[in-house]
Every structure is written in C-alpha cells, then in structure tokens.
Amino acid sequence: MSNDFHSILRDRFHIHKSCEALPINHIKLAVRPGEKRTPVNKLLKKLNLAGYKRIGDILDAADAELLSVDGLPRREYDILLEFLQRISDDPGLIINLEVLELMEAGSNSKAERERKIEVIKQRLREMGMIE
Q1: Which phi and psi angles does 23 have, rounded to 5°?
Q2: What pTM was estimated for this model as a whole?
Q3: Phi first, then psi: what are they for 8, rounded to 5°?
Q4: Where are the strands (E) in 6-108, listed by range?
Q5: Fewest CB within a 10 Å sphere: which of 14, 33, 97, 121?
Q6: What are the angstrom distances between the C-alpha of 51 and each of 19, 23, 61, 68, 103?
Q7: pLDDT at position 130
C-alpha cells in the first residue's frame, strides 16, 4: 500500500471522463437507498472547504493529500474511496448515460452530419416522399 499511498486516485479509479467535470456534490447521488447521507454530506463539505470542487480534482489528489484535509478522519476517507469505486463501476449513478451518448453522437463533424442527411434524403426520394 505504500506505493498506492503516493499515487493519485485517478490511477485506481477509472471514472468516465464526463463525470470528472461534475461538482463533487454529485458523489452523493451514489448513496444507496437506506444508507445515511450525513457522513457523505460531512465528507463533501470538508473536501469543498479544502478546495476540491470537481470530481476530477479529487481524482488528481494523492491519498496523503486527501488524508491531510483538515478534520477528515480515515473513516470518511474510506467512504470516499467506496463511493469512487461505485461511480467507477456504474457511472450511471451520477450521470445519465443515454443523454451522454446522444451528446457525444451530436458532436459529429459537419461533413458526417451532411452525409447522414443525404442518406436520409435519398431514402425519402426512393419512397416518393420528396423530389
């Protein structure tokens, strides 16, 4: 663990790139039904006060850096690791993956969009719906 202690969290958790830009408060969306939110809220408040604003900011931090956050006990740090693992396993907990796929598909180049439009127009012509 001594090597892990100095590595950044990004090396251990493979969180979807689009989740990294989200505010750290999105982490609490991974709370399961029946779990208490208070420990997570306390953890996020301490991280926010320490300057961690985005999930990516946390991923870029090392264990030692996070454990040195004022008032952050090891128990809360372990909670953070558990939640990062949940988000790594299922990014859909904090981001709508269907919307993300549509946004990524919508970022096609102009030439690609025009090519698709031409294919659709050709099909409509074949069906006699347009000239």
Answers
A1: -60, 150
A2: 0.72
A3: -85, 155
A4: none
A5: 33
A6: 18, 12, 11, 13, 29
A7: 82
Is residue 17 pLDDT above 50, yes or no?
A: yes
Phi-psi region of 70 (alpha: psi -120 to 50; beta: other; left: phi over 0): beta
Contacts of 93 (CB under 8 A, 6+ apart): 29, 30, 86, 87
Give the total residue count for the chain.
131
Cα–Cα distance, 23 to 82 (Å, whole number): 18
Q: Is 66 exposed, middle or buried (0-12, 13-18, 19+ CB in 10 A)?
A: buried
pLDDT tens-digit readout, 73-93: 999 999 999 999 999 999 989
Distance CA 20, CA 31 (A): 18
Residue 116 pLDDT exceeds 70 = yes
Question: What distance, in Å, lies between the first and last C-alpha atoms of the chain?
Answer: 69
- Per-residue pLDDT tens for 60-70? 999 999 999 99
Put residue 34 in one of left, alpha, beta given phi > 0 → left and psi -120 to 50 → alpha.
left
Angstrom distance (rounded) from CA 55 to CA 27: 8
